[in-house]
Design a protein that fits this description.
The protein is α+β, with helices and mostly antiparallel strands and 835 residues long. Helix content is 24%, strand content 28%. The protein has 19 helices and 42 strands.
Length: 835
């Protein structure tokens, strides 16, 4: 569009008003913000938010959102007072496990560029003199804390008013006390927003409706997977020890405080203390029973998002508060309520465009902590099409269909509430719901004692107890050293035996959870040619590894494209986001040129896949198939239809573990028989069923990247070591023009392979990496390399760090020496994988 599009933002809370400001600052001037409550006090989550902003998060994206929010609110001021009180943030440890976890969190902070430090109990008490740093009621004591000076308190409601004034001055229209009754659409596009006062025309509609977002999504047939939950917040009566310390009634001078071992947080309100509690049972909110509050009735104590306080749920937490802060023994609970806010199945926000309604966007389940950062990214998405911050963990369409059901959203969101302050391992699986998605091989895997972890609702074996006996046969050079307690969680030494057998004999891997798409039609080649970096215009039988890029050349995803026939392709992709992207693009292409129609189908659930890999893989499959699977019969990165014991199979000559073998695809009804045939045929050759533990180790030994972990939309192919996936002289694909200019520019960073010098220290990912004593990068993937007999870590580092250079990885506060190594560590000449 040459003129600014007509934008309607639904919701004038901290997200909607920030988005209006971000769009106006980028020159868009046809914006209307609609709010069902009065603009002075809308009555949503923003209106009662306590405003604590702790920036540190395991997610780089979420930390960047929070840091941007801090900086923007600091700059937003009136009468010389900004909307952010940078008092710092203090997280307490009263157990050894928590103290170690804070060291891990400090690593995250360092990796993402946030300054912080671990402090002892004495310094904790200096920051909070009311703190009982000695023995608590049950014999525990404060052992230390994590202090981040740049954390603090956001004045969310005040910020909204200043943002409204600023955006109005830039030409934005705000309409308060206006309920949205519907969203108009035509031809698959939004055209307007219905209100009691008439229709507001729109080219773009953005739902920033907070915990009303799920209801708003229903208006357009969109499942918005969030759950409104109530959360208890209390203000005490005046505390004598705070008398005369803070000038303003809502002022604060001490750091915001987390007591996560008891699911509590604290802040000052002048001479009172505010207390938030997650220690109670989850309280899902029935949206039909929200308080009906008229505009003239709205107040700080009466609003739709503020429910009646349930004292019985807070009573145990109150005792914990008094133990930690003895001054509270002389105080009472004064102003208390159960406030509503949103949770999602994985705890992340929901951002992006509805796949089946062009122009309808969502920015929901966003806390004040991340509000301005989310708004900035949404504005970039709307204006340029590609946010500067990677959004793959926030995408609206990241969940599988089963994960958007009411029951799944309710159960998982409530569990996230319960676990919000728990010390959780990166691999820690949810306990329920489980067994939602299982491959046809699941029954055999259970017979073999599979230990399952869960991803995208799939059950994925990580090792098999049936292979434990192999540990007695394991050659000494394959035996891995014992890991520390943290790295040993959700790990088994059996993975070493499974890697050994895969490298020396043959392993059977369940690759069914790898998402598979079928792209068919006369426009299939044109679609994939336009969207991918690879040369996919090859004869049937060709397989191509390539990338999907953003318009700025960042890596949207990596895909494997197999051409089965002239008009049929099978793709291996990363997530549901890829599926929705491809099908939307196919729909647009078909509409633009009906002769070039293409249809994209998710075939994951109706098919299955076995990875048969290892130097003896050909001997195994030769016992059950008469097809020519020699190097001449099926070359590396080629595919053909074969039969295995009479079962029709699509065989692709690929290997994620760097060994000879195939991905063997068939429809689900044949899956169990295919497993049995191969497993039986492999017995005389030492076949083992192997899991993700061995797989991940061998993947890193071979230097294969994992999208979303090793590279994201923040990275371009050449710095990621994936320049080979961009076809020479190919133009016209998404991102091509920008990528060409980037290729000519000197790289400032590179993804490097590190090997740990002591041969024993296994890190897990996201740890900071130091060069010359300065933190300059962070770990992406890590594993123990069973073949190379040492731990491996991949890390983003400055381009000037060369092979052979010494670096250090910070792991739980300790520096682990490592060396930048040439990659791949195994089979650099490709002799093994090419057979």
């Amino acid at each position: 569009m040459t003129a600014s599009p007509r934008v309607v933002i639904i919701g004038a809370g901290i997200v909607g008003t920030n988005l209006a400001d971000e769009l106006a600052s980028r020159g868009w001037n046809n914006i209307t913000v609609v709010e069902q409550g009065p603009l002075e006090l809308a009555g949503g989550s923003t209106s009662h938010a306590p405003g604590l902003v702790f920036q540190t998060n395991p997610s780089k994206t979420m930390t960047e959102f929070a840091t941007y929010t801090v900086n923007k609110l600091l700059s937003l001021s009136a009468d010389g007072v900004s909307c952010f009180n940078q008092v710092g943030g203090l997280e307490l440890a009263t157990t050894e496990a928590r103290l170690e976890d804070l060291k891990r969190k400090l690593g995250y902070a360092t990796s993402w560029g946030v300054d912080g430090r671990i402090i002892d109990a004495d310094e904790c008490e200096k920051h909070w003199p009311l703190l009982n740093a000695g023995s608590l009621a049950d014999g525990r004591q404060v052992l230390g804390g994590l202090f981040v000076p740049s954390d603090g308190l956001a004045s969310a409601a005040r910020a909204v008013q200043l943002l409204i004034a600023k955006a109005r001055a830039a030409g934005v229209t705000f309409r308060g006390s206006t309920t949205v009754t519907g969203v108009e659409q035509a031809g698959g596009k939004v055209t307007g927003v219905q209100t009691p006062d008439g229709v507001i025309p729109a080219d773009i509609v953005v739902s920033c409706a907070g915990f009303w977002g799920r209801e708003l999504g229903k208006m357009v047939g969109l499942s918005v997977p969030l759950l409104p939950l109530a959360h208890q917040y209390v203000k005490t009566t005046p505390v004598d020890a705070l008398s005369g310390i803070n000038d303003l009634p809502n002022g604060a001078s001490k750091p915001i405080l987390r007591y996560q071992d008891r699911d509590l947080y604290f802040r000052e309100h002048g001479n009172r203390i505010g207390i938030g509690s997650y220690a109670h049972k989850p309280m899902p909110v029935d949206m039909d029973r929200l308080p009906r509050v008229g505009a003239d009735e709205m107040s700080d104590h009466r609003m739709p998002s503020r429910l009646d306080f349930t004292l019985e749920d807070f009573a145990p937490a109150w005792e914990d508060c008094q133990d930690l802060l003895p001054a509270l023994h002389q105080a009472q609970i004064n102003d208390a309520f159960n406030g509503i806010f949103s949770f999602t199945p994985d705890g992340g926000p929901l951002m992006g465009e509805a796949p089946d309604l062009s122009g309808f966007f969502v920015a929901e389940a966003v806390w004040v902590t991340h509000s301005a950062g989310v708004a900035k990214a949404m504005a970039e998405l709307l204006v340029t099409g590609h946010p500067e911050t990677d959004l793959h963990g926030c995408e609206l369409t990241r969940f599988e269909k089963v994960q958007t059901s009411d029951s799944y959203v309710s159960e998982t969101s409530q569990q996230n509430f319960v676990e919000i302050y728990d010390v959780l391992h990166p691999l820690q699986p949810r306990e329920s719901p489980r067994d939602l998605r299982v491959s046809p091989f699941n029954v055999r895997q259970r017979e073999l004692g599979a230990f399952f972890l869960e991803s995208a609702a799939w059950e994925r074996p990580h090792w098999f107890e049936a292979n434990r006996g192999l540990l007695a046969e394991l050659p000494e050079e394959w035996r891995a050293p014992e890991r520390d307690e943290w790295a040993a969680m959700f790990h088994s030494p059996i993975s070493a035996a499974e890697a050994w057998k895969t490298r020396t004999a043959v392993g059977l891997y369940d690759m069914t959870p790898l998402k598979r798409l079928s792209v068919t039609g006369p426009g299939a080649q044109a679609l994939l040619h336009r969207l991918s970096t690879g040369n996919i215009a090859k004869k049937p039988g060709a397989v191509t590894y390539c990338l999907l890029l953003e318009h700025d050349g960042g890596i949207r995803s990596d895909v494997t494209v197999a051409r089965l026939t002239e008009e049929e392709f099978q793709l291996g992709v990363n997530s549901n986001v890829d599926f929705d992207y491809l099908r939307v693009e196919a729909r647009r292409q078909s509409a633009a040129d009906p002769a070039q129609w293409a249809h994209v189908t998710d075939i994951t659930g109706s098919t299955c896949c076995i990875g048969l890999w290892g130097p003896l893989a050909r001997e195994v499959i030769g016992k059950v198939s008469t097809d020519d699977l020699t190097n001449d019969g099926l070359k590396y990165f080629r595919t053909k239809e074969i039969t295995v014991g009479g079962i029709p199979v699509t065989a692709m000559r690929l290997s994620y573990v760097g060994e000879l073998g195939w991905e063997l695809y068939t429809t689900a009804e044949y899956g169990l028989k295919l497993w049995d045939l191969l497993f039986e045929a492999g017995q005389e050759h030492g076949i083992v069923a192997a899991g993700r533990g061995a797989f991940n180790s061998m993947r890193l030994e071979k230097g294969y990247r994992l999208w979303g972990t090793d590279m994201t939309s923040e990275h371009h192919p050449y710095e990621s070591g994936l320049g080979f996936s961009v076809a020479k002289d190919k133009t016209g694909f998404v991102g091509a023009e920008v990528l060409a200019s980037r290729k000519e520019q000197p790289a400032t960073r590179a993804l490097r392979c590190l090997t740990v010098d002591d041969g024993t220290s296994v890190v897990l990912g996201k740890e900071p990496v130091y060069v010359g004593g300065e933190a300059v990068g962070y770990v992406t993937s890590a594993a123990y390399g069973y073949t190379v007999h040492k731990p491996i870590a991949y890390a983003w580092l400055p381009a000037g760090v060369e092979i052979g250079d010494a670096v250090e990885i910070e792991y739980f506060g300790k520096r682990v020496a490592a060396t930048v190594s040439a990659e791949p560590l195994v089979d650099p000449g490709m002799e093994r994988i090419r057979g």
